[in-house]
Amino acid sequence: MNKLRGEVSIVLDGETYAMAPTFGALCEIESTLDISIPKLAEKFADTDIKIGDIAVIVHAGVLAADPLRCPSVLEIGNAIMDHPGGMTGFVTQESEGFPVLATFLINGVTGGREPKPSRAPADPPKKAATPRAATG
Length: 136
Description:
The protein is mainly alpha-helical. It has one domain. 46% of the residues lie in helices and 10% in strands. The protein is built from six helices and four strands. The longest helix is centred in the middle third of the chain and has 15 residues, at 51-65. The N and C termini lie far apart (82 Å).
């Protein structure tokens, strides 16, 4: 697993897999689910996510990291259902204190780097006061 590339690890049926948020993986997720990664991350945060969506996300991430070991979407879905905590337990899997799938999506948006604080736009330059014509 390469943390510098934003990869995370996830456990499926007791086996650990790397997930890579590559351009191809993110495009596959957006295309299959017909939603942008930032919008998907919002849905995730609101816990408005379907089991099929989770399986697609995991499949795309694992496929990008290790195509030779990647289970099918169906196998991933079954692993989610077989998780001791069910779908909720699977989704809340943590790595280093953060939910793995949320971290994967955030890394997809940020490239695996800490987001930089946004800078407020500089105040526009003030116009010089226009001198008033003397009346006389």
